[in-house]
Specification:
This protein has helices at about 10-25, 70-80, 80-90, 100-110, 155-165, 165-175; strands spanning about 1-5, 30-35, 40, 45, 50, 65, 95-100, 115-120, 130-135, 140, 145. The protein is an alpha/beta fold and about 180 residues long. It has one domain: Class I glutamine amidotransferase (GATase) domain (Rossmann fold).
Length: about 180
C-alpha cells in the first residue's frame, strides 16, 4: 500500500500522477489528508482524500509519496506526524518518494539524503543537505526516490511503479498512457 500525503498547497500533478499510475499497476493507494479533507492544491483544485493522516495506516505502507508545491511542502515538513512517519519508513528500509520541493524541504531538512544521489526542483539543491545532486527527472538511490517537478511526474511515477511492481509492469503502464512510446 502507498500513502500519498497531501497538505494544503500541494502540487496537484505531482500527487495525482503517481496515485493514478500506481493504481493502474494494481497498487493500493491512499490519498492521505494531512491538513484536513478536502485538501486544496497549489492551483486551487480541491481533492477529497481517502482518509486523514490520523486514520491512515502509514506505519504499514510500502511507500510514502511526498508531492511538492508551495506551501504544501512546508506544511508537510512542519507536521510532526509526517516527519515521524517518513523517518520510520526510512529506518525500516521502505520507500520514501519525494518530488519537486519535497526532496529539498522535507528529506533534506530531515537529513535523509546524506551521500545519496537525488534531484529536486531546479534552484532548491542547497536544501538537499549532504546529497549528490543529479539534474534528471527522477533519481532512485536505495529506498529514496526523488523527482524534479511537474514535467517529470510521469518518469517519477513510472519509477515508483518499477520499485513496487518491477520494470515490466512499469513499461506496461507507461505504454498504456503513451509515455515515451514512439519517441
Amino acid at each position: 500500500m502507498v500513502c500519498v500525503l497531501l497538505a494544503e498547497g500541494f502540487e496537484e500533478v505531482e500527487a495525482l500522477t503517481p496515485a493514478d499510475l500506481l493504481r493502474r499497476a494494481g497498487v493500493e493507494v491512499q490519498l492521505v489528508g494531512v491538513t484536513g479533507n478536502p485538501v486544496r492544491g497549489a492551483h486551487g483544485i480541491a481533492i477529497c482524500t481517502d482518509c486523514t493522516i490520523d486514520e491512515a495506516n502509514v506505519a504499514n505502507a510500502d511507500m510514502i509519496v511526498l508531492p511538492g508545491g508551495m506551501p504544501g511542502t512546508k506544511h508537510l515538513y512542519a507536521d510532526a506526524r509526517v516527519t515521524a512517519a517518513v523517518q520510520a519508513q526510512y529506518e525500516r528500509g521502505k520507500y520514501v518518494a519525494a518530488i519537486c520541493a519535497a526532496p529539498s524541504v522535507v528529506l533534506g531538512g530531515m537529513g535523509l539524503l546524506h551521500a545519496k544521489k537525488a534531484t529536486c526542483y531546479p534552484g532548491m539543491e542547497q536544501g538537499m543537505t549532504g546529497a549528490i545532486p543529479v539534474a534528471q527527472n527522477c533519481v532512485v538511490d536505495g529506498n529514496i526516490i526523488t523527482g524534479r517537478g511537474v514535467g517529470g511526474a510521469l518518469d517519477f511515477s513510472c519509477a515508483l511503479v518499477a520499485a513496487l511492481c518491477g520494470e515490466d509492469k512499469a513499461r506496461e503502464v507507461a505504454e498504456a498512457v503513451v509515455h515515451h512510446v514512439g519517441k
